[in-house]
């Protein structure tokens, strides 16, 4: 019996530690992303930081330009979000950050943008160095790794407020877009 109580206490302590760690990661993810000293290059070869997108809500995802599955779904869901925000007359920025600095160069994103007909001015495709890419992924809680010549990664779309704070994240392509966008004013 005493052994059972000891195991229960170990379990509760372990669960508490996991909650603390998850909470610290969530606090990290909900910090001001715009203050991170990360540098990017747009698909138009312009140097930017995430702070350049402040003042409007941002729909942000990290993707791999050569991806055929998850990234296609991510872009499709982002296009659906754009349609809803257009209907609500909400002006927002859409940012896709490359997960593979070797393959997601500005010229690659230009081709990607043209192929997908993503020519709107409020969409930006960003490339960065490996350290900045890893840092942003960590701050957003996005797991990814290189397997042979492919990037394996989570599905995640993040909604930021105008100040760069994480409002919420979509972790599954089947999640409700209305719930994801809940709380955004009808006009910005």
Q: Mind telling me the CATH class of the largest domain?
A: Alpha Beta
Total of helices: 5
At the fourth level of CATH, the homologous superfamily of the largest domain is Glutaredoxin
* Tally of domains: 2
Q: What does the average pLDDT come to? A: 80
What is the level-2 CATH architecture name of the largest domain?
3-Layer(aba) Sandwich
For the largest beta sheet, what order do the strands appear in spatially? 2-1-5-4-3-8-9
The outline comes out as globular
Instruction: Give the SSE order as H and E letters.
Output: HEEEHEHEHEEEEH
Poorly predicted runs are 3-31
Number of strands: 9
Q: How much helicity do the residues have? A: 25-40%
* Overall radius of gyration: 18 Å
Q: Which structural class fits the helix and strand makeup?
A: alpha+beta
- What is the strand content? 15-25%
Main sheet overview: 7 strands, mixed
CATH topology of the largest domain: Glutaredoxin
State the end-to-end distance.
Answer: 61 Å
What features would you describe in this structure?
This protein is an alpha+beta fold. It has 2 domains: 1-30; 33-181, Glutaredoxin (3-Layer(aba) Sandwich), CATH 3.40.30.10. The chain is 39% helix and 21% strand. The chain is built from 5 helices and 9 strands, in the order H-E-E-E-H-E-H-E-H-E-E-E-E-H. It has helices at residues 2-29, 70-88, 106-116, 130-140, 177-181, and strands at residues 40-42, 47-48, 58-63, 93-98, 123-128, 144-147, 150-153, 157-160, 166-170. The strands form 2 sheets. The protein has a 7-stranded mixed beta sheet. The radius of gyration is 18 Å and the shape is globular.
